[in-house]
Write a structure and sequence with these properties.
The protein is α/β, with parallel strands linked by helices and about 260 residues long. It folds into two domains: about 100 residues, 2-Layer Sandwich (60s Ribosomal Protein L30, Chain: A); about 140 residues, Alpha/beta knot, CATH 3.40.1280. It has a seven-stranded parallel beta sheet with strand order 8-7-6-11-9-12-10, sandwiched between helices. Strands 1-4-3-5-2 form a five-stranded mixed beta sheet, with helices on both faces.
Length: about 260
């Protein structure tokens, strides 16, 4: 197999464009992966990988881990170790990369007794990735994203640790549609806030279908979203802190959602 050394190779150029630009990810309907574990997770969950890229060193180490049947006709290329270091976005690359198709339809059907989290205007990729990972761990039935940061940015993908391929995620910019679908399935809605008149989460009945709305890291939920939810809820806190990181708050709320399931 020929070893690619030039950054001008078409596949390498595409990989770098997808790594650095949301516009290119949207235009090509593709995103990138880096690292052995997350690529194995993608293959296990039947994600459509179009190109699998190894450095020379990684090819010798990992080639036996992938069968052509698993790869579903993905193109395999080998690049120099030096080129691998150039395209990597990690400090110590494992030398294995992939280009993957963005799924065509991320909508999922809501369940009447399902437990959901709705993220509104979340802007930190690390928080988004951590929330996806926590949702996977706790068995949340789905995440709904409205106006959030790029789901397919490399930082978000890395932060999910592979959970991106296991959690149901629906991106829907129109909040009217979200509320309409939740109402149609008789799912109770809760706004996570820091208002003094909100209900303590320890006193809230989360049985049956529930959806918790969580807002932007700096500004919280928009007033119009909070006003449309059935109830406002708050995580009780002590000391001098009156709010939590969105990722941490989401984790606590998801735990409460699933605690009595």
């Amino acid at each position: 197999m020929d070893i690619i050394t030039s950054k001008d190779n078409p596949t390498i150029k595409l990989y770098q464009k997808l790594s650095s630009s949301k516009k290119e990810r949207v235009r090509n309907k593709m995103f990138v992966l880096e690292g052995f574990r997350i690529i194995k997770d993608a293959i296990k969950e039947k994600s459509h990988i179009t190109s699998l890229i190894f450095t020379q060193q990684a090819f010798e180490k990992y080639k036996s881990e992938f069968s052509q049947a698993d790869l579903n006709n993905a193109r395999i290329i080998v690049i120099s170790n030096e080129l691998g270091n150039k395209i990597s976005q990690t400090e110590q690359t494992q030398g294995i990369f992939a280009i993957c198709l963005i799924p065509k339809n991320k909508y999922f059907s809501l369940e009447t007794n399902g437990k959901y989290v709705v993220l509104v205007n979340l802007q930190d990729p690390g928080n988004l990735g951590m929330i996806i990972r926590t949702a996977d761990a706790l068995g949340i039935d789905g995440l709904i994203l409205s106006g959030c940061c790029d789901l397919y940015s490399p930082k978000t993908i890395r932060s999910t640790m592979g959970s991106i391929f296991r959690v149901k995620i629906w991106e829907e910019p129109d909040e009217n549609i979200i509320f309409s679908e939740l109402s149609l399935h008789k799912i109770k809605t809760f706004a996570g806030v820091i208002d003094s008149d909100a209900l303590n989460i320890n006193t809230v009945d989360f049985t049956g279908g529930c959806a918790v709305f969580i807002g932007n890291e700096g500004n919280g939920l928009p007033f119009e979203v909070t006003g449309r939810c059935d109830k406002k809820i708050i995580i009780p806190m002590k000391g001098n802190i009156n709010s939590l990181n969105a990722g941490m708050a989401s984790g606590i709320l998801m735990w409460e959602l699933k605690r009595n399931d």
